[in-house]
């Protein structure tokens, strides 16, 4: 659309950087070196550099939460 109407278009290559707020853990993507604006959710200005995807946490059998409380195998048998 811009090229057809004669507007000047410049292409640049940029590097995405990923940050999360240290207080509310909201994630953002930035094309500059550091985020310049405060967090939209909590208005804090403390950012931590993180990976592109969250680390996947594997739950062990004994760490799974149960809706009915504690389950015991072979009760009343």
TrEMBL record:
Family annotation (InterPro entries): Mcm10, Znf_Mcm10_C
Superkingdom assignment: Eukaryota
One GO process term, biological-process aspect: DNA replication initiation
Mcm10 C-terminal zinc binding motif domain span: 24-77
One family name in Pfam for this protein: Mcm10
Signal peptide span: none
Any one Gene Ontology molecular-function term assigned to this protein's record: single-stranded DNA binding
Cellular-component GO terms for this entry: nuclear replication fork
This protein's name: Mcm10 domain-containing protein
């Amino acid at each position: 659309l811009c090229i057809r109407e004669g507007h000047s278009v410049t292409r640049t290559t940029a590097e995405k950087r990923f940050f999360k707020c240290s207080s509310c853990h909201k994630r953002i993507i930035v094309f500059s070196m550091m985020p310049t604006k405060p967090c939209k959710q909590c208005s804090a200005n403390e950012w931590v550099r993180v990976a592109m995807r969250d680390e996947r946490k594997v739950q062990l059998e004994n760490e799974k939460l149960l809706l009915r409380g504690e389950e015991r195998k072979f009760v009343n048998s």
